[in-house]
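Just wondering, does anyone understand these tokens?
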Amino acid sequence: MSGHSKWHNIQGRKNAQDAKRGKIFQKLSRELFMAAKSGGPDPADNPSLRLVMDKARAANMPKVNIKRALDKAEGGDDTHYDEITYEAYGPGAIPVLIHTLTDNKNRTNSAVRVAVTRSGGNMGAAGSVSYMFDRKGYIVISREGLDVDEDQMLEDVLEAGAEDLQTSDDAFEIYTDQKDLAAVRDALEKKGYKLETAELTMIPKTKTEIPADKVEQFDNMIDKLEDDDDVQDVYYAGTFPEDSEAK
């Protein structure tokens, strides 16, 4: 694979995310709690929890915060969160998936709808957007200080069981079948690679450039959604104009 990367987009938003670090930790705590409640607090016996813990470490979440979330689950806290994924079209008719964990559906329904519609988007019916995305495993290995070329990395990731490799100046991005993520992660770590992140994500099958006159509205919608305590992840099948120019 080639072209502009998911990792580039993540890094491009990093400064804004740094300012929201406390909120990110809060959301990760919710994911850790849910994973531990459903599969137990030991990541060795709970692959879902291991993935969330990897995600938490990649976000530099303090160990004490991780332990607090696991202790809460192990301690019998009866808080329940519903997983709800909303489908929408953002400004410029860009497909958007919004994954939430909520203890109050009405509150979340209202907040997501307001964030989308007041930014010039529209809510979609169930199934209207999700078919445009594939659920994949996603692994990032930074190229900083790494003396491995693209050919060697491709050989290693395919041997580990991955499906695809995307290379940029900053990182190697590896895509796997969702069922193979843990196995590929473990195989690459055994080869000595340090992984920046290893997680399940939604990858758009195709991307459309966000119209220049809709960029501000679209960015505003994403910020409002990511700022909501109940929104865990936002995925969209669009590229910003400057991303397209960099291809």
